[in-house]
Design brief:
690 residues, alpha+beta, Serine Threonine Protein Phosphatase 5, Tetratricopeptide repeat, Immunoglobulin-like, Nucleoside Triphosphate Pyrophosphohydrolase, 4 domains, seven-stranded mixed β-sheet, five-stranded antiparallel β-sheet, 22 helices, disordered N terminus, ANKF1 protein
Length: 690
């Protein structure tokens, strides 16, 4: 079988272009190939060629050139060039796992020359070993054949060069001789690397944690030894027996970008033992048992059988809204809603009518009253009217003070931009009560409809957490929306923010700027807030700091400026799950009246959460600028773990009971000095939902 394989390889090699005549020539060839395939790739990507045959021919040529360039880089041990190619081109574009005419892959060359940095870079990009090497014997035979054939070719060319008279053909033979001498040395180095290699040591460390009530997470690290060949894959095994007999399952991990694995489908409450072993070209090394030696899949909710807090809430709210709509759908005031055309053409026509309707245009200046403005942005550009004004519409020209409850009501309405017409009609029905609050809120809905009609956009985005007020009696409610795609609009256009700021002529004094001037001056800060408030946390368990302060009409919560939709926090670990055993320990600590006892080193090693919490608390106190000795009376909230989906969970750290919420005028000893802000609690809750 190997003889037939080598014949096939020889035939393929005969079709392969002649190799480089020397290492320097190889470098030149490799650089030229890299440059050529960059140019070809661009032209192919731009679709400049017509004809399927030409494109397929170019694609094959492009793949060959990229593959040859990568092989040259690996053989010449040019780590920088290998990393550059892996960064700019996909494995498919590099033809990363297609053997060459010698039956080798780039990873084979790297590991058999014991070039660990290049091998690791290839492994992280998804490189694999050649499928030809099904055993140690087949690899050894293959390498011996390559060395023997290269040596034979060197001897043949040397004899020809010695016996032939100097001419052009002789000069070409000398170039081929140098190339084959260089390849002969490469194959000998690969063969020696294989013969001197040994199986890898066990992974240096294996950490086991409980990922859920049916899964365990295994994290492991490379063997410490640097004398063995590069590790190319790992094997995770699990069993209910410490002797691993019988074996319940195993998994081979050959994608080594991150050295961890989650074992799914386990039985809750059952102890599982885990071990991990490493593999290189010489075979599997000895296994390393995990720390701790076993783990039991579980979740903190199993401690008292508690159901998730939000289970079914979204469905219940949708059902309730549907019921409310059903009650109102037969009202005569809803007939226009039923007959409203849904096509884009009618919607555009309606928005165009608004442009010529008296009182339905964007405002240029503010008079004493309540206003709504919508900021749409994309990169460094912002939507403005044709008069280079930020879109503003009037809510109420007689409303000189904004009640916090009305503002918070509007922030909730922002979750239902598509239902504004229906909400208007419902509020219209209720106006018979002549409630001032209902009249104000109805005017808010009218202003929203007007803004949507003028812009031709339903979703106006997120309401900024506080309105802008000036001394002239103007109040400006701001909505923010990032536009991801290139859209064009009827009545507005894109302009750079810096151009808008520099070209606008202020009509107010610097000491008493109008609300519009204040908006324009602070627009970058508001856009930054909007972008940061949409960032999501990476998966993990976090320790959050809950600090509130109250005013006459609201309660505000302390949040970091860089992530205002989340409490002040630090990450405890990457695994978001709290196991039943960990929760039992937390409950035990919470029931102790005195400060937490100092645990022995043995107890700490058996309880990683204790160590993780100690580190997290110190880090969190430093973050919020509270001396550690002042935090001795702080408490962990032990009623529940706050789960935000399946990937993020929080434990809460609370100040003493009397200091959780600071009253107006009260000295607050537990508030950081900078880098934080306070949001109205309802705004924070909405941001958290988003």
């Amino acid at each position: 079988k190997m003889t037939q394989q080598m014949r096939d390889l020889q035939l393929a090699q005969a079709r392969k272009p002649p190799g480089p005549s020397s290492p320097n020539a190889a470098k030149r060839l490799y650089r030229n190939l890299s440059g050529k395939f960059r140019v070809n790739y661009t032209s192919f990507d731009e679709g400049s060629l017509v004809g399927r045959g030409e494109k397929e021919k170019l694609r094959k040529s492009y793949l060959f050139q990229s593959n040859a360039a990568l092989f040259e880089a690996v053989e010449l041990q040019d780590l920088d060039r290998v990393q550059e190619m892996l960064k700019h081109y996909s494995p498919e574009e590099l033809d990363l796992n297609t053997p060459n005419s010698e039956g080798l892959l780039p990873l084979d060359v790297a590991i058999m020359t014991n070039n660990a940095p290049i091998a690791r870079a290839l492994l992280q990009a998804g490189a694999k070993e050649s499928p030809h090497f099904v055993s140690l014997e087949s690899r050894s035979l293959h390498l011996s054949t390559l060395v023997r054939e290269a040596e034979q070719r060197v001897n043949e060319l040397m004899a020809q060069v010695v016996n032939e008279a100097p001419n052009a053909d002789c000069s070409e033979k000398e170039k081929q001789l140098k190339a084959w001498e260089w390849r002969f040395r490469l194959y000998k180095r690969m063969k020696a690397g294989f013969e001197h290699a040994r199986v890898p040591d066990a992974p240096s460390s294996v950490h086991l944690s409980v990922a859920s009530s049916s899964s365990l997470q295994v994290t492991f690290w490379e063997p410490l030894s640097v004398n063995s060949a590069v590790v190319t894959k790992y094997k995770v095994e699990w069993s209910c027996s410490p002797t691993f007999s019988p074996l319940l399952g195993e998994a081979v991990i050959d994608k080594l970008k991150e050295l961890h694995f989650t074992i799914q489908g386990l039985v809750s409450g059952t102890a599982y033992h885990i071990r991990v072993s490493a593999y290189n070209m010489k075979g599997w090394g000895p296994p390393q048992a995990s720390v701790p030696p076993f783990a039991i899949p579980s979740n903190w909710r199993e401690y008292d059988g508690r159901a998730p807090r939000r289970r079914g809430q979204a469905e219940a709210l949708d059902h309730l809204l549907a019921q409310v709509k059903t009650v109102h759908q037969h009202c005569i005031c809803h007939e226009p809603c039923k007959n409203q055309p849904q096509s884009r053409k009618h919607s555009v026509s309606k928005s165009l009518k608004h442009l010529f309707h008296p009182g339905s245009k964007f405002l240029k200046t503010l008079k004493r009253g309540l206003y709504l403005t919508a900021i749409f942005y994309k990169d460094d550009n912002i939507l403005v009217t044709h008069e280079d004004q930020i879109p503003v519409v009037e809510i109420d020209d007689t409303y000189s003070c904004l009640l916090m409850q009305d503002f918070l009501w509007l922030t909730k309405v922002s979750c239902m931009w598509d239902e504004i017409l229906w909400l208007r009609q419902c509020v219209t029905v209720s106006q018979s009560s002549c409630s001032c609050i209902l009249q104000t809120r109805f005017k808010m809905l009218l202003a929203i409809s007007q803004m949507q009609g003028l812009l031709g956009i339903q979703d106006l985005g997120q309401v900024f957490f506080e309105p802008i007020k000036d001394k002239q009696g103007n109040i400006l409610i701001v909505t923010l929306k990032e536009v991801k795609t290139n859209q064009t609009f009827e009545s507005v256009r894109w302009v750079p923010i810096c151009k808008l700021q520099s070209s606008r002529k202020s009509v107010s004094s610097p000491e008493e700027p109008t609300a519009l001037d204040t908006l324009l001056i602070s627009v970058q800060d508001k856009l930054a807030y909007h972008q940061r408030s949409s960032h999501a946390l990476s998966a993990g368990l976090y320790l959050g700091y809950l600090k509130l302060c109250s005013a006459v009409d609201q309660i505000r919560v302390l949040v970091p400026e860089q992530l205002p939709n989340i409490l002040c926090h630090v990450k405890i670990r990457s695994n978001p799950n709290i196991s039943r055993e960990e929760w039992e320990w937390l409950q035990k600590m919470a029931s102790v009246e005195e400060p937490l006892p100092t645990e022995s080193e043995a107890d700490r090693s058996q309880n990683p959460l204790f160590q993780e919490l100690q580190v997290a608390i110190k880090e969190l106190m430093t973050l919020v600028n509270i001396p550690l000795q002042e935090a001795k009376d702080f408490r962990l909230y032990s009623q529940e773990v706050l789960d935000f989906g399946d990937q993020v969970s929080f434990l809460l750290l609370l100040p003493p009971s009397d200091d959780v919420c600071t009253a107006p005028g009260q000295n607050n000893p537990y508030t950081p000095r900078s880098g934080f802000l306070t949001l109205p609690l309802q705004i924070f809750e909405l941001g958290e939902e988003r």
